[in-house]
Amino acid sequence: MNKKQFLQQLDDSLQKLPHDERRDILQDYEEYFTIGLEEGKTEEEIAVSLGSPRQIGKELSASHQVEKAHTTATARNVMRAVWAVIGLGFFNLVIVLGPFIALVGVLAAGWAAGGAFVVSPLLVLFSNLVNWGTFQWFDAFVSIALCGIGLFIVIGMFFATKAITKGFLRYLKFNASLVKGGLRHD
């Protein structure tokens, strides 16, 4: 593969990145070819030493998505980062998707429990309206207590969601760096 073919495949692999960032990456790889040619290597040797342009594109796209999710942690950005890291290799399907599904399940359960506890007084009122004449003070007091517990759960889930999102994004960044070339111990 020569320089033109390598850069074309790399450009095709980087289509999801912003234009300016893609241009900077392509300029960097053009410099690799220039330096290699000055050292007396052929374009084919340089292309082989750089690796697969498609894999390079996947790695750079995954890094971009993880950084984007890290700076703006919306559900959409986190999902894009998860899929980009999974795309780095089949092994990541198990290593990334499994914990992601588990964490989403835990968060959904916590938010559902907190929400259910918070709306429990409304459910008691609705029950008393439907079944007129069956009002019991015990039900009212228990539902108010559950509402208070639910508020604490919701507050806790807010902070837990932020912490888990931040921790999972660190895990994605760690996983992406591990797939790119292993961990470097300096």
Automatic annotation (TrEMBL):
Keywords, ordered alphabetically: Membrane, Transmembrane, Transmembrane helix
Source organism, top-level taxon: Bacteria
Pfam assignment, any one: HAAS
Membrane-crossing segments per the record: 81-102, 108-130, 137-160
Name of the protein this chain belongs to: DUF1700 domain-containing protein
